[in-house]
Input
Amino acid sequence: MPYLGSAPTTSSQSLVKQDFSVSATTSYTLSQSVTSANDIALYINNVRQEPTTAYSASGTSLTLTEATAGTDDMYCVYIGRAVGTINPASGSVGMAQLSATGTKSSSTFLRGDNSFAEAGGGKVLQVVSLHNDQYATHSNTNVDAQALILSQAITPSATSSKILLMGGVQVSTTTSSAHYYGLSIYRGSTLIGQGDKSSRNSSIGEAHTSNSYNAYFRADAKVQIHFVDSPNTTSATTYNIYCWVNHVGGGSLSNTTLIINGGGYAYNNKEEVIGTSNLTLMEIGA
Output
């Protein structure tokens, strides 16, 4: 007959019958496990027996109240398994019909514990980057008087996220004697990722990265940035990169001019080249 709307989805399942090899006993074994006598219809000589009165059943054990004769005909039908399942039509179940917990969205997936969740740890959630290719000088720098070179903000999406900092600063100076270069990382005004001077000499300076070489007429040095921070916030967070240069020798600090992206002495013949400085911030999901 015709239907209004879509035709109902149906399925069928045949009743399971078990024939017994009968003997003069009250104990038999069922081929399928049941929970009670009401899960089967038991027939002896085609006469249905009354559940719980004529027999009991549990698991695969069938026990009769009275023993059968070897000439009896006995079988059962598993009526507790007669209820079939109806499969919904393909594509007919939406997310609103699911019982899973969590937030259902395009950025989550359904886990084995029936809950929606973001992808696991190690996922890169966002990347911001700063590239500096400009020549600049900073006078009178040393480990106690550092110059701000790079500054970049990022807003973490979760308090559990890590921030991976990568990059480097091209440094040199205006004189040809030996010099010591350093780079420090600040989260806002908080110094992070620096060396521990107490492990060697409490009178020396501290930096995230350092380098030393003869400068100006030589190529720039690249002072590297590589650090993983745990800011524990979802507010905008600014990372500041400070650098400095100090003359090596003499036993004291000296105020020295720091050059960024200098390339060494300006020979005007491409003997020296200007490099770049950069800072990349990546939010890593927990």
Notes: The two ends are 58 Å apart (CA to CA). The chain has two domains: 16-81, 124-284.
